[in-house]
């Protein structure tokens, strides 16, 4: 698990972008609807940072073309996005938010 920040450092309705290494896509961590959620930071429609998007309820709106994603499932709820973004497990341990990145699915030959 990767420590992100203390819970008091991420107010509700806000997000933070974390970068793990060059091989792992950046992750956006959100405090929304009283919970913490993590998704891949890049919109599945076009290269835009979801951590810079507008958060309302459990949804984030992409800042580039207004695609809306459900933070709980990663599913897009409107066009232009058609593909979901990957979600990641979030745990709070001793007041610190941690993310467990989802395992990347490898292409099957």
UniProtKB/TrEMBL annotation:
Domain Rieske: start-end pairs: 2-99
Entry annotated with the keyword Oxidoreductase: yes
EC number: 1.14.12.19
Gene Ontology MF term list: 2 iron, 2 sulfur cluster binding; 3-phenylpropionate dioxygenase activity; metal ion binding; monooxygenase activity
InterPro entries: Rieske_2Fe-2S (IPR017941), Rieske_2Fe-2S_sf (IPR036922)
PANTHER family the UniProt entry points to: 3-PHENYLPROPIONATE_CINNAMIC ACID DIOXYGENASE FERREDOXIN SUBUNIT (PTHR21496:SF23), FERREDOXIN-RELATED (PTHR21496)
Protein name: Bifunctional 3-phenylpropionate/cinnamic acid dioxygenase ferredoxin subunit
Organism: Streptomyces nigrescens
